[in-house]
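HUMAN: Ready with one sample?

ASSISTANT:
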Amino acid sequence: MCTNPEIKQEDPTNVGPEIKQQVTMVSDTEILKIARTHHVQAESYLVYNIMSSGEIECSNTLEDELDQALPSQAFIYRPIRQRVYSLLLEDCQDVASTCPAVKEWFVYPGNPLRHPDLVRPLQMTVPGGTPSLKILWLNQEPEMQVRRLDTLLACFNLSSSREELQAVESPFQALCCLLIYLFVQVDTLCLEDLHAFIAQALCLQGKSTSQLVNLQPDYINPRAVQLGSLLVRGLTTLVLVNSACGFPWKMSDFMPWNIFDGKLFHQKYLQSEKGYAVEVLLEQNRSRLTKFHNLKAVVCKACMKENRRITGRAHWGSHHAGRWGRQGSGYHRTGSGYSRSSQGQPWRDQGPGKKDRHRRYLREHLFLNPFCL
């Protein structure tokens, strides 16, 4: 931990009280002031909290604790957050084993949030070496955008997919980045899920607000709601990464209202699950068909580089259990549930009353758009 001297207000952007003898995770006062300025102006997300107090929180989520095939978003995106910690706490980049842990207050089934999870930074590999925050945040040379993007992709461990992602037009780069990451991490995601994600993003571009409001899915599928929530939490994670890397992508490209709508996704998911043709998912719009196949090809090709072949649900065996989590995350999927290294099994202590209440909640409320949280 580092103690900074007094940081005085020097311009109108540094609003709020002065910081005197603040205990922080970062010793570079210039970088900390920049982070605080972006924070006050709502130009970044969670970066200043991590650098100043060493804490991060996500206290709500939409998840079915009885669905053992889909892990919690808290665990899926943890490796990304760990790499961001390594980037932001650059004092510890070469000595990650001795770097103070970040306190994560992330909700997941079985976690009452009485104590934070202590999570250490995870080293990442950036082509050309990991740049410093001063380079990422202050260097305005045109070629720096390339290094910023390289750093962003390294946080997702997707450096090998750079070429494919660069060929994707905005705002679908962010969507493809998240889908590649999700499908590599969680092999219980299938081709029908991918079709639904891409189809809803393409169809959303032509929908008016009134059309979206009037959408009524035939019924509510808890898995569809959790998948939608997973994607939205991925978007917030991407906002964090983009902020930390000096904004290689425009923030507006991955705002939920540009690439995701909960009810529209639910409709596409139900159609895809029933085996509807892609043309039906795309509402018989031929101009969307080429884009659909291009985006699908980008995701599938990138996943194949990571030895992940996306198959349809019909190809699954009856015993398909699924695995998730890359090496270094500290969490792993087991055959009978989720276990957390040296910290018990947080998904197991569920009484029958809690299960019944949770199922009732799923039936009654899961038509809501998850990004409203």
User: Anything to note?
Assistant: Residues 44-358 form one domain. The longest strand covers residues 102-106.
